[in-house]
Design brief:
The chain has 252 residues and is of the alpha/beta class. 52% of the residues lie in helices and 16% in strands. It has three domains: 3-46, no CATH class; 56-155, Rossmann fold (3-Layer(aba) Sandwich); 159-251, Rossmann fold. The protein is built from eleven helices and eight strands.
Length: 252
């Protein structure tokens, strides 16, 4: 069904049908009711892509994440999605699996789809990708990584303070044999937490044994990390886990 058919059935112009569907102008209630009846009868669905091209405005937000299997990324994505829907925006999501190459491809996809804005909830950000994002002039929000400026806003978590509180708590409980289970330790946010942990242990409990284990960000990666930890050396009395996708399995 087309806009013209809806207009013909309801006895109004295509411009009036467009105003009713977009809610951009006041239309008499009787006219609006005729248009809505025609839309329902004809089972008309507007071409949202064509509408975006005509208006120059998109109602889609792009979201790029490193790993949707990871509860950390999934929780943030769900919050973004819920807020977008509450403001009548749709969400286009891409999963990079921590690949900088896939991140670049996903960013190009989002730009090509003319999204209204982009949320990059990733750990594998590189300077070249940030430059490309700045060139796009899209409103962009980065989580933890990259550099703010121009069209880019960065939301930053104070991982060091959080790690220090964890270590302070564990030391107060008497733990001296600790382990840190992560993944992709070369990634900025994870490496920052690892370094913060070593600094905090050195400052609060010199001589404490802290072992670092890394494996894939997955359930199987979590299993392999804990098996490797328990099969080599004395078992720790406390484990700090930032391998989010594998943590639930470790706890069981």
């Amino acid at each position: 069904m087309t806009l013209e058919q809806v207009a013909k059935l309801s006895g109004v112009s295509t411009a009036t049908v467009s105003r009713v569907l977009n809610g951009v102008a006041v239309v008499r209630n009787s006219t609006k009711a005729r248009v809505i009846r025609a839309v329902t009868e004809l089972k008309y669905h507007p071409n949202l892509h064509a509408r975006s091209l005509a208006s120059g405005r998109s109602r889609t937000i792009g979201v790029v994440v490193s790993n949707l299997d990871n509860p950390f990324f999934l929780d943030i994505y769900r919050a973004v999605e819920n807020d977008c829907h509450s403001h009548d925006y749709e969400v286009l999501v891409a999963n990079t699996a921590y690949s900088p190459e896939q991140l670049i491809a996903s960013v190009r996809l989002m730009i090509g789809r003319r999204v209204a804005g982009l949320a990059a909830i990733v750990s594998e950000m590189e300077d070249a990708i940030v430059s490309k994002l700045m060139e796009s002039r899209l409103p962009i929000v980065l989580n933890d990584v990259g550099t703010a400026g121009g069209n880019i806003t960065r939301i930053r978590a104070n991982y060091r303070k959080g790690i220090e509180r964890i270590v302070e708590y564990l030391v107060a409980l008497g733990h001296r044999q600790m382990a840190f289970i992560g993944h992709h330790t070369v990634l900025g946010p994870l490496d920052e937490r690892r370094r913060a942990l070593l600094d905090a242990v050195q400052a609060m409990c010199p001589g404490a044994d802290i072992r670092i284990v890394a494996n894939a960000d997955s359930l199987d990666g979590g299993r392999q990390a804990i098996r490797g930890l328990l099969s080599t050396g004395p078992a720790p009395t406390a484990i700090i886990c930032v391998n989010y996708a594998g943590c639930s399995d470790i706890l069981t």
